[in-house]
Amino acid sequence: MNDKNHDVKDLALADQGRERIDWALSEMPVLRQLMERFDREKPLAGARISGCLHITTETANLARTLIAGGAELVLCASNPLSTQDDVAAALVRHYQVPTFAKCGEDGDTYYRHIARALDHRPQLTMDDGADLVSELHKNRADCLPVVIGGTEETTTGVIRLRAMAADNALRFPVIAVNDAMTKHLFDNRYGTGQSTLDGIIRATNILLAGKTFTVAGYGWCGRGIAMRAKGHGAHVIVTEVEPLRALEAAMDGFRVMPLLEAAACSDFIVTATGDKHVLDQAHFEVMKDGCVIANSGHFNVEINIPALQRLATDKSRPRSSVESYRLKDGRRIRLLAEGRLVNLAAAEGHPATVMDMSFANQALSVAYLWRHGASLDHAVHPVPSDLDGQVATMKLEAMGIAIDSLTKEQQTYLASWREGT
To answer: Which residues does the annotation say bind NAD(+) (predicted)?
Structure first.
């Protein structure tokens, strides 16, 4: 492949990347089935797709599925620290996917890579955080006339896209893959829960049992993190701004309190809200010495890092994914993964088993858009319910789990109002 068609760290890593990609595929039975089906049916024949996604082993298998379906695909990273460089190399060398992604790339390189993906003049977009769609609308409007539709993988991206739609700024339909039941109920909860704890443990090697562990936000990601931290023996606190979620956290057995109060007694604090400056200067000023702070939301704005830097007298890096900030009074605050999503920046992201369902939804939604996108409104759309159900059915079958079905009598009863006590 011509060097102009990729920008990765080291092509010599390609064989290692291919081995890990195949390992992940062994845990992705639904995507394997779709790969075989797409190879037979070619539902994406001729489709130009640009994807701004985390360049991981699981994403590589999504890419293989789309290519099997006939797509012409270009990839770039959706986060400067989440790229697995061996996977990026394998995508280029072994699967001939033009890929623009390097772990640790700076901001200018990050957006230059997005620009290269948009040079593909995509008819379909795939996004994880909406940076590709945002750039497309702000700086590459020349490409908009050929875009049929797009998909969005994560909560933060869906929030941004709904804001665009509310401002009448969105110029094509987008399917919110994140909102599929087979995505957020499993990927966000079980995937984020396990991978976030994995990232924290890899970064720090600190025992969680007996520690006070605060989770800011009790959406599906926060639920998963709290559940897994509790499983490690931590004393878990949840902070929230939504009354119903706060009530649910309390009923689930967690302590619920304001974040300022929690900050003073926590050994670990993890943000998972999708909002800005959730951890701010007031929280830093009361934190315990040695408190570990991390973010599991998509962007690194959930922790006000500039405010922490202003309070600090010096900074050191005791471990590869840890920055220790010393404050004027001698207290240390330990920031993980530069405030970026800790499960990918300090570990490997979600296990392949849950990404199997998420990326099956991606593949099916992209194929749906290729057929029907031109007839959809310029809005954020749900994953069609039959596709969501199809993914659940395929996953159950792959797990060897059989379930009951309704009898005709039961179907009639549920559709009738006449029969009662």
So the answer is: 154-156, 188, 217-224, 240, 296-298, 343, 350
